[in-house]
Write a structure and sequence with these properties.
The protein is mainly alpha-helical. It contains 5 helices and 4 strands; from the N terminus they run ααββββααα. Helices cover 72% and strands 8% of the residues.
Length: 197
């Protein structure tokens, strides 16, 4: 019983590791992404390719290795594709396009993620160097190393906080609003008298 419990604990640790969870999420997203790319290729790219190739497009791109013929209603021989042996070049081209589109999109996503990661690491490195310089200056002024590092970190944290939003202008009081309305009414009344004359 204890061996089963230990095995379960090991499995629990394994399954809850970040890498395993990330991998599971990646597989799920990958499956959804594959469906999108396949649909894009089938519904958008292949009709364009078929438009330029021929009336039936890539469906005609087959090499028949062993032909089996059947008779249609009028007695004409037609190729029975379900029983014939053939190489389907059109399907192969479609799969190659699926792969290329997936590779291009993944390359673009990885490029963006890598550049964002590099940018954030550069910002962290710059902040670290700044804190080290400030700590050295404070040590020269007679502070201990621990105090200097703590104060440098605190000063940099304050410096990196976003600036506070500008204060809203004070709202007028009810007396000021009433006075403004009175003045507008007086001005309007004067304007009406001058228009009437």
């Amino acid at each position: 019983m204890k061996a089963i419990k230990n095995l379960f604990e090991e499995f629990k640790k394994f399954i809850t590791k970040g890498n395993v969870v990330d991998m599971a999420v990646g597989v799920i997203i990958g499956a959804a992404f594959t469906a999108i790319v396949t649909s894009f290729n089938k519904e958008v790219i292949m009709p364009i390719v078929n438009f330029f190739l021929a009336s039936d497009g890539t469906a005609e791109l087959v090499t028949v290795l062993k032909a089996v013929y059947t008779l249609d209603a009028e007695g004409n021989q037609i190729l029975d594709m379900t029983n014939s042996i053939f190489i389907n070049w059109g399907s192969f081209i479609s799969k190659i396009l699926d792969f290329l589109i997936t590779a291009i999109i993944l390359f673009t996503i990885l490029k963006v993620v890598t550049s964002v990661g590099n940018l954030s690491s550069k910002v962290r490195e710059k902040a670290k160097k700044k804190a080290e310089k400030l700590a050295k200056k404070l040590q020269k002024k007679g502070m201990s190393q621990e105090e200097a590092e703590a104060q440098a970190a605190a000063e940099l944290a304050v410096a990196e906080e976003p600036a506070p939003a500008p204060a809203e202008p004070p709202k007028p009081t009810s007396e000021e609003l009433l006075a403004e309305i009175r003045d507008l009414l007086v001005a309007q009344s004067a304007q009406q008298k001058s228009d009437a004359e």
